Amino acid sequence: MTFDPLTSDFYGFENALAPHELDALSRLRGFMESEIAPIADRYWERAEFPHQIIRPLLDTGVASWTWPETRDTEYSAVFRGFASLEMSRVDASISTFIGVQEGLAMGAIGECGSPEQRADWLPRMARGEIIGAFGLTEPLSGSDSARGLRTTATRDGDEWVLSGSKRWIGNATFSDITVIWAKDSEDGQVIGFIVPTDADGYTATAIGNKISLRMVQNADITLNDVRVGDHLRLTRARSFADTARVLRLTRAGVAWSSVGVAIGAYEAALAYATERVQFGKPIAAHQLIQDLLARCLGNITASIALCVRVSQMLDDGVQRDEHSALAKSFCTSRMRETVAWAREIMGGNGIVLDYGAARHFADAEALYSYEGTREMNALIVGRAVTGHAAFV
User: Fold this and answer.
1) Both 98 and 217 in a single domain?
2) Cα angle, residue 366 at apex, residues 364 and 367 outer, rounded to 5°
3) Residue 2 lies in a domain
4) 254 near 367, Cβ under 8 Å?
5) φ, ψ for residue 368 (rounded to 5)?
């Protein structure tokens, strides 16, 4: 299969991928451009998720490349990052759906589950037979999840009783399972459970009126004495440090997705600038427009370089929390600048969906905040470089 590099990958970082990875990336790109791009604005505007694309999307292998139980050969973390970029370049809501399904839900089971749990759940989730969600954030606990979780888990014989609430949980209006993180009422440690969403006492209510990632079906979850068997407790989740292992993987994925959002907006602005005529020539021929395009491309190129390196560190087994935190903080900040410049290039046309930048401009706000705000990630980096924790 012939691979056509992205012109927005100005330094050609994709060239470092293995041939089988380039083939997989081509298949994913083709699917996103043929199946998602034509419908993305319509579903985004209606705040609906296109459920009909789930199985075809997963047939590209996008949820199968990480775990030995699901992959057919080795795929690098750099390749998986480029896959997140490709999805977000077309639509960040689809990338977020996969980030929840494969990165967070499957990631929690892959990192914290027993071999039996991994073998049972991961293949079915990779095929789309089971849709997952990830329940960590709570109405009163976001950045302080390590200490501030209020959801409790109480042992009762061979069962656990879960009580509490969660907020902003992606996929949760239609997931089959949700990985719920709760404090053990006995010792206060954070532990995880695979919770079937049809369990008695489990309720998910859609969150509406969003201005960002409108296709993503976020929900408030209420756990009213939900009983789950001990066989659904993630056996290798013994403290928040284990939860953090999952977040370390997905935080770098959000950095990659933010580059994709920036590229999507930049490519739309570049196409617009070559067609829009003002003062007798395409606006792409004006100095100020070229300056903005160059600034966009500089942000994109620097961010790709950072993402490639942090993913190489993951492959080498040396990535730490502060590495993924710096990538997420830097790349989402540069994304925010880039989508604003891309919208600026389009003038008033930049605020409507018709011209390609508005959806990316709006979606950037969610990526900027979730998986750790810029400020919290800065403090993780600051603790690493100074040796002093400045958290409240």
Assistant:
1) no
2) 65
3) no
4) yes
5) -60, -30
